[in-house]
Design brief:
- The chain has a single domain, classed as Rossmann fold (3-Layer(aba) Sandwich).
- Helix content is 48%, strand content 18%.
- The protein contains five helices and four strands.
- Strands 2-1-3-4 form a four-stranded parallel beta sheet, sandwiched between helices.
- Strand 3, helix 3 and strand 4 form a beta-alpha-beta unit.
- Helix 1 packs across helix 5 and helix 2 packs parallel to helix 3.
- The protein is globular, with a radius of gyration of 15 Å.
- It starts with 17 loop residues before the first strand and ends with a helix.
């Protein structure tokens, strides 16, 4: 993961609605991401009624729940949150790749931005650093969601 994120935009989130799907697997780490993402979105003006959080068992189940949020037509963008840590087999690679591909396909097919906030880490310490540490990616996920929602709204209005 890059340590050089784009500069933040100041976006008024008061008219933006965001769906969030968060895995329960690696729950402590995902909860940290979720809490920080929600705080960042609220600080940008996203109203509580403009947020919907769905919890699913793991990162493999996240894309299906995101697709339901997208199909509902209620959201300007969706954020997928999960944590996948390398184990003793290549199973983590399969889950990471398939969830990433599915999330991108949902966005392309629907025209609704989907932010892939599924952390894929080589080990537990990398996962902790990216979810709770100095390299936490939650702010990047929230900012990307706001920026993409604003992009789509502006593009559709022009």
């Amino acid at each position: 993961m890059s340590s050089s994120p784009p500069k933040e935009f100041s976006i008024d989130g008061s008219s933006i609605s965001i769906g969030i799907v968060a895995a329960r697997y690696n729950e402590e780490l995902v909860d940290a991401l979720l809490s920080d993402v929600e705080n960042e979105l609220k600080a940008a003006g996203v109203r509580q009624e403009g947020l919907e959080v769905i919890r699913v068992p793991g990162s493999n189940e996240v894309p299906l729940a995101v697709s339901y949020q997208v199909l509902s037509g209620k959201f300007d963008t969706c954020i997928a949150l999960g944590v996948i840590v390398r184990g003793g087999t290549p199973h983590y690679e399969l889950i990471a790749r398939s969830s990433c591909d599915a999330l991108q396909q949902i966005a392309i097919d629907s025209g609704v931005p989907v932010i892939n906030g599924i952390i894929v880490a080589e080990n537990e310490s990398q996962a902790v650093e990216r979810c709770k540490g100095e390299m936490s990616k939650s702010s990047e996920f929230a900012q990307a969601a706001l920026e993409m929602a604003a992009f789509v709204k502006n593009y559709q209005e022009s």
